[in-house]
Design a protein that fits this description.
The chain is mainly alpha-helical. The chain has six helices and no strands. It has helices spanning 2-15, 19-33, 38-46, 75-80, 93-98, 102-114. It starts with a helix and ends with a helix.
């Protein structure tokens, strides 16, 4: 496959002047020479997702609090704050979690470690 790509790149550089036509030519050669299943071809043609998951993931930034990026509150909310207020950050996953009661935190811990709570 690497020889095919190398030759396709060389041919594209010789024959085409602009980058768009070079990329198109390389892509066409690659797709014509790659073997895929009929199912995969149908999914690609119909633009269907190749996989599905019943689980969702949330990224939790574990950097030190001063190094974490944050989103500012709306201008209207900031204007309503006192002049000396430093509460300009929107709530995030970590701040909402830290405001939970200890019972809710225990439930979250049990769920994450054991899968469900009966």
């Amino acid at each position: 496959m690497s020889d095919l790509m190398r030759r396709a790149c060389e041919d594209a550089r010789k024959g085409s002047s602009d980058i768009r036509s070079q990329v198109r030519e390389i892509g066409n050669k690659f797709t014509k020479h790659v073997e895929i299943s009929a199912q995969e071809a149908a999914y690609i043609t119909l633009q269907l997702p190749m996989r599905r998951s019943s689980r969702s993931f949330i990224f939790i930034n574990t950097s030190p609090p001063d190094d974490r990026p944050f989103i500012l509150k709306d201008d209207e909310l900031i204007k309503q704050l006192p002049d000396n207020s430093e509460e300009i950050q929107c709530g995030n996953v970590i701040s909402r979690y830290s405001k939970r009661s200890s019972k809710q935190k225990l439930c979250a811990w049990l769920t994450s470690h054991h899968g469900m709570i009966l």
